[in-house]
What does this fold into?
Amino acid sequence: MNLSAIFAWSGSSSLTRRPPTRVGIGRKIPRNSVEASGLLAQAPHLHVASYFLLEALRPHWPRVLPSLRQRGMTVSLDTNWSPAGDWEAVREILGYVDVFAPNEAEALHISGMDDVDDAGKWLSQKAKLTVIKRGARGAVAFDGASGKRFELRGAALDERCIVDTTGAGDSFDAGFLFAWLKGAPLDRCVELGARCGISSLARMGGIEGQLTGGTEFG
It folds into this structure.
């Protein structure tokens, strides 16, 4: 089960992952609205996106996530950018996260490291699995349990084919998680994530270029 909300504003064609990030209505989404939806009682997996923007929910995650994990739910997290720069705040919930999927800048800020490999190693000691999105340079994943590292280097893309970068990171997350939830090996998860992210670039908006139907994996 999936629930998404996309907010746009005049003069903007994309949701940036670096300043300026607009907090908007997301900061006011309360916990009781999420619980009333019934989604947490039905879904086998929870994906938390925009952690830093959903301000009203942040105080509840340290209590909610452990109880969901006890019920057998798996959890993934993509923080998005922190407008306030309070990067360390998310560290307290990383131990309840199965898949952590920041972009490179976010990973460096949260870990406090200066190198993507050092950041990945540090983060994978907190979350079970960390996959860092590096834009045109591809992605690199770190398995905390096995110590395995897998890197997928970016493919050369004709910039004329890139219509809009909105949602490319979220599409990567969707592809990666689709494969991961089916028990695919790490390299296949990263590869499908990259395919979904690249596909998103070819169309305007965050969803029009997404791969669909589940037939792309197998």
